[in-house]
Protein: Histidinol-phosphate aminotransferase
Amino acid sequence: MSRLWSDLTHTLSPYVPGEQPRIPGLIKLSTNESPLGPSPKALAAIAAQATDDLRLYPDPEATELRKTLAAYHGLDPAQVFVGNGSDEVLAHAFAALLKHDAPLLFPDITYSFYPVYCRLFGIEAETIPLDEAFQVRVADYRRRAGAIILPNPNAPTGVALPLSDIETLLKGHPDAPVVIDEAYVDFGADTAIPLIASHDNLLVVRTFSKSRALAGLRVGYALGHPSIIQALTRVKDSFNSYPLGRPAQASAIASVQDEGYFRETLAAIIATRTRMVEGLTALGFETLPSSANFVFTRHPQHSGAALAAALRERAILVRRWDAPRIGDYLRITVGTEAQTEKLLTALTETIAG
Ligand SMILES: *Cc1c(COP(=O)(O)O)cnc(C)c1O
Structure:
């Protein structure tokens, strides 16, 4: 608290990112980063940008990157917006599209940044409970709404929503923006991108941080009808004209162009996820069906707090929330095969002890 703060600052309750502690030999399965590293071509593209040209501002419109993403997804560059990580893209979406007289709807259990943005931008929100299986029930969204936002697959559950349900939401609210946050979609859910052609109220938000292993680069993007993209651009150009530096733009292009590496690393992570779920099930854990690069799991005989503490003693970090309904769940990122074996060994010892 400070007498120098604005009234707004006093009202904020900022997002708390997963910790990044410096423990030697730490196995960090708490922030859904990729264990496999970015495409070597993306790294080479960054190195190639380390020249005297860095004295020049980057392209404020990221034209080449937007063209590359448009071609990749079968869209027009006017349907593509890019920003400094998808968190920034989401922030612009909240400011540009999600504030209306009627409330913004999102699930009671979801990405914890959404309520933070609501405070920052003064948006009234209404949370809609997931069902007992932690699934989104789209029928519950048939109510007055200024806008809707959902991750697909949802975070931190990893549970995916079928495209037919997203279409139901879009049709039920033709005059409200519907934002689908596809941070984890590449790990096994169906993308809503094909629905952009028929629904001008749809915005699909994507990131390079998870499936493309570039969390440190800060690149996110959004896809939608040109008019919804224009709204984001108006906010961006009222905030920061140059959200992506030259290395970020070049590296993101190289990542998209390296489809072989992308597919290979996704397959490896999905295979390790299968192994991890089998191992957890053998130990008596109950794991939600995951379409992401993490699992959401609990043990009927052990509290989430005790399990997380026992893992931490063994230098393995996972994420847990002290929140209603999910306090006994651990969200565990899919790491390398070796990390997964160490995780399962540590849990075996914990449960036996
Ligand atoms: C990780 C994550 C993001 C943010 O990713 P950026 O690193 O900012 O691109 C957005 N939404 C969800 C649901 C996430 O889990």
